[in-house]
Structure formats: structure tokens, C-alpha cells
Amino acid sequence: MREYSSSNDEVPYSSVRRDDEEVPSSPKATDKIRKVSMLPLVFLIFYEVSGGPFGVEDSVNAAGPLLALLGFVIFPFIWSIPEALITAEMGTMFPENGGYVVWVSSALGPFWGFQQGWMKWLSGVIDNALYPVLFLDYLKSGIPALGSGLPRVAAILVLTILLTYLNYRGLTIVGWVAVLMGVFSILPFAVMGLISIPQIEPSRWLVMDLGNVNWNLYLNTLFWNLNYWDSISTLAGEVENPNKTLPKALYYGVILVACSYIFPLLTGTGSIPLEREKWTDGYFSDVAKALGGAWLRWWVQAAAATSNMGMFLAEMSSDSFQLLGMAERGMLPEFFAKRSRYGTPLLGILFSASGVVLLSWLSFQEIVAAENLLYCVGMILEFIAFVRMRMKYPAASRPYKIPIGTVGSILMCVPPTILISAVVALSSLKVAAVSVVMLLVGFIMHPFLNHMDRKRWVKFSISSDLPDLQQQTREYEETLIR
Length: 482
Description:
The chain has helices at 38-49, 57-93, 100-108, 110-139, 149-168, 171-196, 215-226, 242-271, 283-292, 294-328, 346-359, 364-392, 406-425, 429-454, 469-481. By secondary structure, the chain is an all-alpha fold. α3 runs antiparallel to α4, α4 crosses α11 (346-359) and α12 packs antiparallel against α13 (406-425).
């Protein structure tokens, strides 16, 4: 694979500029492509991370109402906010579609940058495979035929093809569709909340049984529903004025996601008697029926289906543009950087869609556990890259900078690292074994791709429209010497 030759191979991709230098926002070749503005970006973030309360039901099943509510109040401060802040700083420092791959490459070198790309793409595809599962889980109570067999398989294939085509048609279309889907998905829970007010009993929120907590399911459910803030970084090259738009969109996204979890949980756990065993994915539709009748149940089911389509679209966009960004940096074959006439990465979309179809036979809990473990490893690399860039290049230009020093940066990464360690420690042996095999595949792929490049079996190249990051690094280091 193409890499910059330098006496300092440690940081071959680092984008380091003085504070008085302009930060390029996107490749010139894509200037004619319409960029994503603020509102669509907020809802793309919403769907990258959440999509609404669909899937949080297992937190009540695992730990009861009080711990479920406390989890979605406290964990954003431990995990979501630090991850969103790091994404805002690093995403504006490197405003291109490689996203977190470029961050890690800049700090740790191309080998670990490639591993980051492999792990995050794979975890993203695994994550996307569960949305057809959730979609059908919500509909099967109204359409039992979708519960298993040929109708379920056919429904997954048709849904995947339709949403893949919409992704192909353009990111701006996906963004505005996400806005419409988001409003439609949130509205029934606002109605449900109003209807439930006379039946709310606050004492139901305080139910807790520490002797009967499934910590593995509880932490995995919280973690899955509160992560992926960094996924939007792989779309930074498609954002209108990313240096200002991205941090603001992440701020609004955190508020929207937190509210979309807490208020429905307050409604569901406070308005009906607790039966923990029933709180599994799809249970909010039963809550809706108990509170408002069949019409509200159907609305929630339609909202769940819509939400899962929105999450599928957003995740596929992120995954496919990540492959495009890696190809533009010479980390993948050049054909991954080819765009369709709509400006979308055609091959990246096809690869991501194929992975979804292959993995969609797994159960919801198996998908979440496998995705979480891979994601954990990728996040550790991001935290290291963030701190290392702060220490190695403290004066580099950062259009958005978290107002803390180096020590504060390290301390900010400690709580989410502890959470990651807990998720990994509680993983089953089966999930851990599968994840290790997937990691080893990445270790093999990088030297194999290098070999392919040396033998010229496939063409690799670095896009001329991207800034020469290594040259900027050398220029910056020369200013320090002077």
C-alpha cells in the first residue's frame, strides 16, 4: 500500500499545522457534490448512535427500572460525551472521509491505522446486520409470518436491497430522509408520554434487585445504545463547513439521543406494573397498546421499522465512506475510491451490504456482543491516538479543541477505558474467540495488501486532492527546530 517515505515512519499520515494555517475541509474533486448541512447531520448522528429507544428494553430485563434509568443518565457522561468531544476535536483536525482511520494512522502509524479501519468497518457491518433483525422483531407481533422461515429471509433481502439503493443515490438524500424518519420515530413516544401521565407511579422507577442483575446484558445494552459517536467522522469530507458544523451537530446529537432514551423509559416503567421478563426488544409496542390501544401500538411498530431503516442508512453511509477514505489515503486498492455519478462510494456500499446479508442470521444479543468487543478495541486505539497527538503536537491547529490540557485529556479517557475493560471482561468465551479471529484476519490483511502493491497486482494510490500530510508534518517540525 502507498505510504509516505520519511525518516520518521512513526507518523506517516499526521496532519499537523500551525494555528495560523488554513485547514482544508474536503477534497477539491468533490466540491461539486452537494454537502450535508446542520440539520441532516444532527439526524445522521442520531441514527448512527441511537434511532430512538428501540433496543433499550433489555436494560430493564437485565437490571430493573432503577438501574436502567440510572444507566442512561450516568453513562452518557462516562462514555458518550467524552467520545463526542474527541470526535469533534479530531474530526475537525482531520476533516476527511478517513475519519478515525487517519487519526490512528497519524499517531501510531499505518499498520495500526489499517487495523483501526478493519475493526471499525467490521463492527459497523455487524452493527448494521441487527437492524433488519430489530425491524422484523417489531413487525412479527403484527405479522407473525415474519417471525421465521422463508418470509423472514425474503423480507431481510428486500429491505437490504431497497435501503442500499437509497444509499447509492446520495448522502444528502440520506440526510434529509433521516430527518423525516427521525421526527416520525420520536412522535409516538411523545404521545405515549402524554397519555401515561395519569397512570405514572414514581415508586415503580425505584425498583432494584442487585442480587438479580445480568451485568453482561446490562452493560452491553447500555454500551451499544450509547456508542458510535465517532462514526460521523468518516463523513467529514462530505459535510458543509465541517470545522464549525461538526462540533455543533455532535452537541445537539448528544441531547437528542439522551432524551430519546430517558423519557420513553420513564413512561414505560412508571405507567405499567413491572414484569421484567417481558422487557425484551420489541416490548415498547406492548407498552403502547396497554396505554393507548392498538392504534398506538401500530404507530410504535411503524416508528420502530422506520427507525431501523434510518439506522441502516446512516451506518451504511459511514461504513462505505470509510472505505473510500482509506482508499484515498492508499490504504486500500484504488477502486474503492471510485464514486458513482451521485458522489457515493459504489464498491464500499456493495461490500457493506454483502456483510449485512451474511451476518443477519445471528440473534440480536449475539450481534450486539460481537460488535461491542470489536468496537472496544477500536476505541482504545482512538483514545491512545487522541492523547498521543495532544502530547506530540500540542500547538497543532485544532479548529475545535476540548478546553483541557494533556493531563485532562488523559483523565477524560480513564472512565470510558474502565467501561471498555468491564465490557471485555464480561464477554462470553464464544464472542471473545470469534473477535480474536477477526482481529487476526486484520493482522494478516495489512502485509498481504502491501505485497499486492509491491507486485502491482492491484493499483494503490493517494488522492492528489488530499493535503500532503507528511509534508505538513515536516514543515511543522522544522518550525519547532527554528
